[in-house]
Amino acid sequence: MPDLIHLLPDYLANQIAAGEVVQRPASVVKELLENAIDAKATNVQLIVKEAGKQLVQVVDNGIGMSETDARMCFERHATSKISSTEDLFRIRTMGFRGEAMASIGAVAQVELKTKPQAAETGTKLLVEGSAVVVQEPAVVPVGTSISVKNLFYNVPARRNFLKTNAVEMRHILDEFQRVALAYPDIAFSLYHNDTEVFNLPSTKLSQRIVGIFGNNYKEQMAFCEEDTSFLSVRGYIGKPESAKKTRGEQFFFVNNRFIKSGYLNHAVMMAYEGLLPKDSYPFYVLFIDIEPDKIDINVHPTKTEIKFEDEKTVYAIVHAAVKKALGIHNIAPSLDFQNDVNFAPLQPIRIEGGRNEFDGDGSFSGFKAPTPPKRASSSGWEQLYEPLKQQPEQEERITSASSMGLLDDAFAVDAPTTFNKTLQVHQKYLLVQVKSGVMVVDQQAAQERILYEKYIGNQQKKAVISQTLLFPQTVELSPADALLLKELAPEFKDLGFQFEDFGGYTIILNAVPADVQAANEKELLEELIEQYKNNLATLKLDKRENLARAMAKRLSSKVQPRMSDLEMNSLVDKLFACQVPNYTPGGQKTLVILELSQLQDLFLKG
């Protein structure tokens, strides 16, 4: 039979390899920034157009490349980082696989300009689809400039899979922030469509965090440090009160390389146990320094996964470091078994100089010990039965859902047509008698569904009602959030927000949606942006639906008040008037039905 196995052409092999290394414009950003770091650059500039689809350019002042190296860097498995098997286990550079430039050159039009310090002239290369089109001398400054144009121009199917500019820019910002956080001693700048997004001078870690995420982080961070013979941990953690509803601002670096680790994240979360509100996540930027032979980073081409030789020890040290930082800054209570301090209020601890990089005395507010609950008195137990002894006059009510024919015997959920009284339980649930048993309504989930359908309807009808703030509020955003808000300005306007640019990354908030309570409008806007970003990472939604979901979730997540009978009945009415009353937009149940037979079984069993 004829021979069937043959070698793939280089251009095709490179395109296959590019599928792992270059998944979107952000992948190009990551690889080029890391190459600039390895080139010992002290100033790195990132320029993108159309969220990287049209252009990704990185300019650095590093050591540059010779004419031969400039040509060789586009060959597969060509690298200056390693030369033997042993080198794999003592890697300190960001790159080492020799795949990135070959993969990028296979799926884009690349222009490379470079010049080493000692050379009189530099080199210019043009590469298209793995082929070198031009190589010639050029007068260029010391360092390297790489322009990646028209990504996936020769693989249209891959280009069609790219998301909207807002989504792709979000990924680029993520990669930029990770590299900028890892190297605060290097100056970074970012321009998108000729607009400056970041301009970060060389500084210390604390100021780099503030430069990326905003000035309000200055008061939210606590210094974290732990040194052992096995590894060292340093960085900053957020105070519990600054926790957010999304996981976005959580960063682990191992030997200055950003990694993703659910295992180590669990170590941090366990250190915060008992200190965070439900479904809240703390901010942290933590650096682990460990001997390279104790880890394996050659797990995946993106190099964001890592294997530790002794994972349990790493977990224990990270957990202890965060726990210690929370205790030092008096964020969490500490126990002293020699003195009876459990019954005395803890005093604020003053942090000694050098523990916190910020100016000032470094003091933090103390932890106030909770008041022990009072013992229940047996004399008042009869009061528990008072609601059952009362027999209010029975009244009938036909819900809007029933009148609309949305619910009947064929549906799993039957409308509450006859009942004695709607009961609110722990300000979380509503109990409603229905003909088949008892309906339990999740108050927060029901409000989320109602608000979501209201905002979607208002957007479709262009029925926007705003309330003007008596005192307009100044809102200072992070550069990334300011860029996102600028792109979403029409969608925010359709919800009822009115704001104007105040220069830099600051806006003036003039009006909010009419149904928003007059308090913490600034906080609402920030939380709305945060929830929108979280939705971007997990859901495929258009801008309007994303914002409607985010708005509904944020307003419904506030502490639920004690409701009057009229308010409870109105909430149930509005829920059953919704097109999809059974679930929130995210798929969570809004209600459950306990059949009479189920209730009877609870008392008959056992």
Describe the structure.
The protein is α+β, with helices and mostly antiparallel strands. The protein folds into three domains: 10-202, 2-Layer Sandwich (Heat Shock Protein 90), CATH 3.30.565; 209-328, Ribosomal Protein S5, domain 2 (2-Layer Sandwich); 382-606, Ribosomal Protein S8, Chain: A, domain 1 (2-Layer Sandwich), CATH 3.30.1370. It contains 18 helices and 24 strands. It has an eight-stranded mixed sheet. Strands 9-10-13-11-12 form a five-stranded mixed sheet. Strands 18-19-20-24 form a four-stranded antiparallel sheet.
* Whole-number count of domains: 3
CATH superfamily of the largest domain: MutL, C-terminal domain, regulatory subdomain
Biggest sheet features: 8 strands, mixed
Into which percentage range does the β-strand content fall? 15-25%
In CATH's first tier, which class of the largest domain applies?
Answer: Alpha Beta
Oligomer: single chain
Q: CATH topology of the largest domain, which one? A: Ribosomal Protein S8, Chain: A, domain 1
Number of helices: 18
Structural class: alpha+beta
Mind sketching the topology for me?
Blueprint: H1 10-21, H2 25-38, E1 43-49, E2 55-60, H3 67-72, H4 100-106, E3 109-115, E4 122-128, E5 131-138, E6 143-149, H5 156-160, H6 165-182, E7 187-192, E8 195-200, H7 205-213, E9 221-227, E10 231-238, E11 250-254, E12 257-259, H8 262-271, E13 284-290, E14 295-296, E15 307-308, H9 311-328, H10 386-389, E16 395-396, H11 400-403, E17 418-419, E18 423-425, E19 429-434, E20 437-442, H12 443-461, E21 466-476, H13 479-487, H14 489-495, E22 498-501, E23 506-513, H15 521-538, H16 543-556, H17 565-576, E24 591-595, H18 596-604
Parallel strand pairs: 1-7, 11-13
Antiparallel strand pairs: 1-2, 2-6, 3-4, 3-6, 4-5, 7-8, 9-10, 10-13, 11-12, 14-15, 16-17, 18-19, 19-20, 20-24, 21-23, 22-23
Helix pairs in contact: 1-4, 2-6, 6-7, 8-9, 12-16, 12-17, 15-16
